Amino acid sequence: MHPMVKPALRRGWRDLNTVQFGMAPAHAMVLGPVDLATGSFLSLLDGTRGLPLLRDEGRRMGLPDGHVDGLVERLAASGLLDDATGGGPDADALRKKVTVVDRLRPDLAALSLVSPEPGGAMGRLATRRSLRVQVRGAGRVGVVLAALLAGAGVGSVDVRDVGLVEPWDVAPGGLPADAIGERREEAARRAVRRAAPERPPRTAASGEDPGFSLVILAPRKGVDVHAPDPVSAEPLIASGTPHLYAGVVEGTGVVGPLVLPGETGCAGCLDQGRADRDACWPRLVAQWRSGRQHQVESCDLALASVVAALAAGHALAFLDGRVPSSAGARWEVSSPGLDWHSRPVWAHPACPCAATEKGKEEHTSEDGESHETMAGQQRSTSLSLTAHAARRSGTWRAHV
Ligand SMILES: [Zn+2]
């Protein structure tokens, strides 16, 4: 172990004996009392020295025996310590790829803020390289989203779509103007490759298809964003594949729900819940789906980009082993106010996904029409988190 005080947290002394790690309240921590010698010793915890050398340095600085080990333990217990050599064999392999790690260094630092254990951040970054994600939909949202995931170190990001690139598909970070007229799928995959810090690992020519850790549905058509088709998600539900919805409909951006099949509300639950609250819902959806769309649909470029980015953030949180707040909820943002709010997607008893079995003990309110409060959202997420605490993203891999 080469202990390192997490460099992502900016250090500042509140007074002579109290040090604050971090500026922003979300991850800041105060440590004290810290005497002067210990304070100057902290600067040696930069990942370049192992424990034996640190103990020598401590003795040289007049720190009592056992003080260094005690300090390291205290920092580790507070989640302030990283290990420059930790994270396991995959992390070691990644460390050897210096140019790749240099590209991902800010992401690694960000991961260290949410990985309490020393070496955890590099371990998670290494895990990302082994994951397979599929993005369905290569429009303004889908391609940017796929490129973000590849750029953040997800090893394999597959994009699926049909047709040719239209001029209005072009977006910064997504499909470039020189791809107009090319096959959407090919152009999208090229954009993903360009965003990745390294070439994707070769997939085995033979053997079993390992499936996807996550499938993201980012349809180009507004109706498919507003009213996702439960039928097209049936294979994902049946195979137990986690999937996330994201897109833009008219002037509204949508991220969620993240569906953990059988555990959180799915597209079918959403559809049934809406039909319960509005008898006209099925009639409207049928019209929206059948009507021919002759015009280019509205899709604000900034809105599309922010949806892609937030969806990528939720996807990465899930892939890193956490349960983001889009599990069982839709985050929505509308022009021109652009304030995000979430609406719950309750598991519906009539939906064949069976999430309601899981949800019975969790949900006491069926009032899905009102906007979810932040407190309610946190409650639901924390319950969900308890249910998934022991499950790493790898356990969700499934066939599709
Ligand atoms: Zn369902």
Automatic annotation (TrEMBL):
It comes from the Bacteria. GO terms for molecular function: nucleotidyltransferase activity; ubiquitin-like modifier activating enzyme activity. Keywords: Nucleotidyltransferase, Transferase. Residues 375-385 have a biased composition (Polar residues). Residues 191-210, 356-400 are annotated as: Disordered. Residues 191-201, 357-372 have a biased composition (Basic and acidic residues). InterPro entries: ThiF_NAD_FAD-bd, Ubiquitin-activating_enz. Residues 129-353 form the THIF-type NAD/FAD binding fold domain. This is ThiF family adenylyltransferase. It comes from Streptomyces spongiae.
